[in-house]
Write a structure and sequence with these properties.
Elements (H helix, E strand, L loop, with lengths): L6 E14 L2 E14 L3 E5 L6 H8 L9 E9 L2 E2 L5 H7 L4 E4 L3 H4 L6 H13 L3 H14 L5 H6 L7 H13 L5 E5 L7 H18 L2 E6 L2 H7 L2 E6 L2 E7 H6 L4 H24 L5
Parallel strand pairs: 3-8, 3-9, 6-7, 7-8
Antiparallel strand pairs: 1-2, 1-4, 4-5, 9-10
Helix pairs in contact: 4-5, 5-7, 7-8
């Protein structure tokens, strides 16, 4: 694990406790990991393992729910995020901390145009004028490969395809060149072509800005494509933590071995399906 002075983000013994009528539930328990600047940490595990909840806890997106409490420390650029005021956290989100949510349609405001949402990000964090904000909005949409930026800025989220909405979410996450990007299942429900494009954009983000990336996925193929290090999560805990090459070549935990086997079987099934479908013949 990285030493604190090398890490952009250091999560130490993070636990999430939820008070319910039947008692306290612990969906995330003593999770620890670190991400160095310019590196990608893959957080993998099956659905329900606690990956997304860990991300939301890091960004303190659940603090308004009085039944949810956090323990541990989240050190970002030398600050413990759990000790910051709500106003300080709001100033960090979007500016120094970017988030690509799992469902872009739910993440985007349905009653505001894409241009309005981008403009508000720039004006709120940089204080620039509306005209300058629009100019920067066009630039960041171009950065993620979206053409005809003026038309897109006039549209609402439901008027865009799933791949376009995901690119808009990435644009919102990278617009202010944050130090850390949390990407939660950024390629879910996308076809293989769009998935490859999204992964290429995340790689470019890492290379151009030197951003640290927390890549959350259940797809081991996506993790192999992008991650430098991997943390395997099961039942709310980290069961294995290693660099990507060692984890794929020499997995230690039985659960990690099963994830890799399941991923291999899925790839074989997808390959067979594409072969059997084949090109149509006359």
């Amino acid at each position: 694990m990285f030493r604190h002075n090398q890490a952009c983000l250091s999560v130490e013994n993070l636990s999430v406790n939820i008070n319910t009528q039947d008692g306290i539930v612990h969906p995330v328990k003593d999770v620890s990991f670190a991400i160095g600047q310019g590196r990608v940490l893959g957080l993998v595990g099956e659905s329900g393992s606690g990956k997304s909840l860990t991300a939301k806890a890091i960004l303190r997106l659940l603090t308004q729910n009085k039944n949810i409490e956090y323990n541990g420390r989240v050190i970002f650029e030398g600050q413990d995020l759990f000790k910051l005021s709500p106003a300080s956290m709001r100033s960090l989100r979007g500016r120094r901390l970017g988030m690509v949510f799992q469902d872009p349609l739910a993440a985007l405001n349905p009653v505001l145009t894409i241009g309005r949402q981008l403009r508000e990000l720039f004006t709120a964090h940089t204080g620039c004028s509306g005209g300058e904000a629009d100019k920067q909005s066009f630039a960041v949409l171009k950065k993620v490969g979206l053409l005809n930026q003026e038309r897109i800025c006039r549209q609402y989220p439901h008027q865009l395809s799933g791949g376009m909405r995901q690119r808009v979410c990435i644009a919102l996450a990278i617009a202010l060149k944050p130090s850390l990007i949390i990407a939660d299942e950024p390629t879910t429900a996308l076809d293989v072509t769009l998935q490859a494009q999204i992964l290429a954009e995340l790689k470019t983000l890492q290379q151009d800005y030197g951003a640290a990336i927390l890549l959350i996925s259940h797809d081991m193929g996506v993790i192999a494509e992008l991650a430098d290090d991997v943390a395997v999560m099961r039942h709310g805990t980290i069961v294995e933590y290693n660099d990507c090459f060692n984890l794929f070549d020499y997995p230690h935990h039985e659960y990690t071995k099963r994830l890799l086997l399941a991923s291999s079987l899925t790839e074989l099934a997808d390959g067979a399906r594409r072969y059997n479908d084949g090109p149509a013949t006359a």
